[in-house]
Amino acid sequence: MTARIPVTRRTLVKGALGGTALIASPWVRRVDAAEVLYVNTWGGAWEAAAKKNIFEPFTKETGVEIRTVSPVSVAKLAAQARTGVYEFDVTTLGGGDIVRANKAGIIEPINDKAAADMGLWKDAVFQNGVASHAFATVIAYRTDKFPNGGPKNWAEFWDTKKFPGTRCLQKYAARIIPIALLADGVPMDKLYPLDVERAFKSLERIKPSIRVWWTQGPQSQQLLRDGEVDLIGIWNGRILELMDQKAPAAIEWNQAEIDRAYWVIAKGTPRAELARKYIKTAVSATALAGFCKSADYGPLNPEAFKVIPENEAKRMPTYPPHYKLAFEQDVLNAGIDFDAVTKRFDQWLAS
Amino acid sequence: MTPTKSTPHRPDRLALILLAPLLVFLVVFFLVPLGEVMWMSITEPSFGFGHYGKVLLDPHYRRVVLDTLGTSLMVTTVCVLLAYPLAYVTAQIGGTIGAVLLMLVAMSFWTSFLVRTYAWMIILGNRGPVSELLKATGWDPPPLMLFTRFSSTVALTHILLPIMVMALYAVMRKIDLNIMKAAASLGATPFSAFRNIYFPLSAPGIVSGSTIVFVLCIGFYVTPVLIGSPREQMISGMIGAQIEEFLAFGEASAMAMVLLVVTVAILAVYHRFFGLDKLWG
To answer: What CATH number is attached to the domain comprising B252?
Structure first.
């Protein structure tokens, strides 16, 4: 136990130099590249799809290198605007988050002129974000547990007698409240404004069956794949990917809850101009169609569907036959303070 | 009797020069950000001590604080019970067995706690080895172990155990076994010699090990968040949620300060009775 690593002056100097070089290398590398844009991504399949269909064409076209940071974090977006230190310049936000972010003033405004410069379609800009793609929270279940088919709607998902088993939902109040109301029998077209009291009563009924609330996409896949839970409310892309991998799982498109994702620019970033160029490419018909095909999203640029074959479109929540069964999050008419509801939801979870 | 006046100052100045890089580092990357957190806790969004009142008085927050302290106490206790025999064997019996045990402890210590947390996810999972074993012995369906207080306690114990072992080992190594022989020669039974001599001599290791493990445990973030029960949050998990979900930097900062004060208080008590320099044996 008294053995020591012999430290000579030479090894010490070598070590110190090596260490300094190692610590300094990220900055050295950053200085090398003339133009770099930092994109905040969801990682995994999402990033692979974006790399192939958006990043690479963008770099080829403009010579701007894309570096990625993941996962997506609104907190980091807020911290960046506060400190002026930018880890990423652009990110994607969902409907609930973009209203919050816009209110908090942590994203760059996109005015009419900027929208025109980007060549955007009508209604593309919402709360200073550029509409990109849609995804859905759908019902999914293990087929080995329910060989005769699983729940066909959220009320059945809540029905623990008909479908006994452990369940999992996302820890995200804004998405769970409408689902809880559907489960309690509120019709899809009468959801908004949201009746929060009724939603919590409905949630109270399902709470004992929910083993865990997922927070990250890969985690939701792992929980169903490993059989930790039998039923799950999960994003359509994630469950389709599991099914492609031959996991014993099935998807139910009925009462899918659609969320829109928007590209936003971090407030005050010195690379805002590049970021606008980037978003222009990201939502252009071909790039967006390719991205949505790879990541199982539904494009929001109407032009994109023209370049997507039917069999690919069938995997998308905005594919017309699926869209008919689905409902959209209506963040502006929700009639609730999302922060207050989220706080209540978190305290309810812990009680 | 006539030491030159400059000699005692020389090593001081040398020490200061040697320490300067560290001091600068700590000030820039630790004290300044810490001061900023402190500042945010009373100015964000407006000046006042409202966050502290809320953190200390709100029943929800109080429960989380109590849960955190309870879990940490449990983890610390289990760590002592498991680490004591292990450290004893390693320190006193030594030889090949001791070396192998020490290496196993060190290997566990060097493995990222994230990896170890995921390993526990597999071990305690619904289709994991423990579940299958229970099923084979007739406990079917086996209990759900993941996402409970049990799973987070087991994983935290495993992660912090090496630290306890090392704290105990450091103290036990210094115990002169001749004293035990002397006790035996005076007629003490092995148990009585252990109880009256060895155990009191090793007690400082228990105290310092427990202090380190407890302090680390109350601040633990990843493991409880990943495999703990959704109903039993720990303070760090809640600080994370405050920032991630509500962008409530002020409130989160106040919670972080409370956590820091608790930690400093524990270390201050330790310092008062034992001296902080003894913390690592």
So the answer is: 1.10.3720.10
